[in-house]
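Subject: Sanity check before I submit

Could someone independently write out the structure tokens for this chain? I want to compare against mine line by line before I put it in a report. The sequence has 248 residues.
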Amino acid sequence: MLRGAGTVLNMTTVLVGSGLGVLLGHRLPERTRTTVTDALGLVTLVIGALNVAGLSDPDFRGAVGDSGTLLVVLGALLVGGIAGSLLELEARLEGTGAWLQRRLSREDAGPERARFVEGYVSASLVFVIGPLAVLGSLSDGLGRGIDQLALKSTLDGFAALAFAASLGWGVAAAALSVGVVQGLLTLLGFLLGGLLPASLVAAVTATGGVLLLGVGLRLLDLKQVAVGDLLPALLVAPALTALVDVLS
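---
Independent answer below. Compare away.
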């Protein structure tokens, strides 16, 4: 499939969801939204488990040993989690979003414009700040398919519907944010794809699968895993793999 297709799909679902949200208003019951979110949470767990299967990738095992793959992922999560929590990545992302919203909401304009800006900013933060946006875009760029972005597109479509029901067409404008941010991440994945050995890509995939399991637990309201703080593990995993490969 053409690289970048996942981002195009994501932008499309945001636009369609926003349009439906404006048309339906508050008619969609909360129970329906909850049921759909639970279903998507289960699917996220399945996709995460499939990615974790990268632990058995032959190239990954050849680089770090049969028992080393799990240790690399564990080490990456521990080191990445410590770094992310010390840097307070998740809190900083939320704080940056709140700052942007306050800044843009101070504009001296009519209520309709203020509502549009609020819808745009709020939806943009939800759609582009999150592990699925990073993992899915990099995976798309690496040529490993758009499964993660397809899942994110579905989530964002329903989220856009809910947002637009109360905030209007500003939510649709957030599709521009999705295109810019995920497009750049996809390009980064494409550029790295020519440089990263298969073993390093498998390490990122397996580690990303664990993070997706965390996303699924959050969607199901079972455990609010601070997945944002764990994102540095995606950088640590290939670094550890390369280090073990050189030393072995």
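---
OP: Matches mine. For the report I'm noting this point. Residues 63 and 245 are 5 Å apart (CA to CA).
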